[in-house]
Design a protein that fits this description.
32% strand; 145 residues; alpha+beta; single chain; 5 strands; Thiol Ester Dehydrase, Chain A; five-stranded antiparallel β-sheet
């Protein structure tokens, strides 16, 4: 699947005293990319949550390659890496728009739960969500070894 691209300018508040983006802000940018990704596939978060489906983060990772600075425009590319009936893994690449330099890359892994925090199998509980995400998956899940 082609990545969903989200771009924005680095805000002063996201930088440290050296003018470099503080490392934790990349995770915020991943969330911005994730939110825009779901909107782009016609499954905005607020609609998913109205259906009683929530996606808490189980695991996250970020590899920092180059620094972003105040005033840079960044592009976050978001893709579905893997979807299973109970989990979702998204990948992110953050580029500086001005020169195309890869600034960071990472992923977040999520589980599907209901409003009471109980695990869900979305293939059964939310078949439309499953169909959409499964079609976009880079790595197809197989139950056989």
């Amino acid at each position: 699947m082609k990545a969903v691209e989200t771009s924005f300018s680095v805000r002063y508040a996201e930088t440290d005293q050296m003018g470099i983006v503080y490392h934790a802000n990349y995770y915020v940018w991943f969330e911005v990319g994730r939110t825009e990704f779901f909107k782009s596939i016609d499954l905005p978060y607020w609609e998913i949550e109205k259906q009683g489906l929530y996606l808490p983060v189980l695991e996250s990772f970020c590899k920092y390659r180059h620094s972003a600075r105040f005033g840079d425009t960044v592009i976050v590319k978001t893709r579905v890496k893997d979807v299973r009936p109970t989990r979702l893994k998204l990948t992110y690449e953050v580029f500086r728009k001005q020169d195309g330099v890869l600034l960071a890359e990472g992923y977040t892994e999520h589980t599907f739960i209901n409003k009471d925090g109980k695990p869900l199998n979305i293939k059964k509980s939310h078949p439309r969500v499953w169909e959409v995400l499964e079609k976009l998956t880079v790595t197809k899940f197989s139950s056989t070894p």
